[in-house]
Amino acid sequence: MGGQSRAGGKAKPLKAPKKTAKELDEDDKAFLEKKRAYEKAKAELAAKASGRGPLNTGQQGIKKSGKK
Length: 68
Hints:
The protein is mainly alpha-helical.
């Protein structure tokens, strides 16, 4: 198993070149900061809302169609 060639098998994927760190100007920095703040607020709201059950509990009952 270990010494066989890859002639008929799956070829090894080529390594992707490393990404170079690009310079960020002021607009990009402001955009990333705003995006991070939005994601953080969204996560907090999701965590806050996850503890509760359905919003209308028992006030309306089961809705039935008009036919009886």
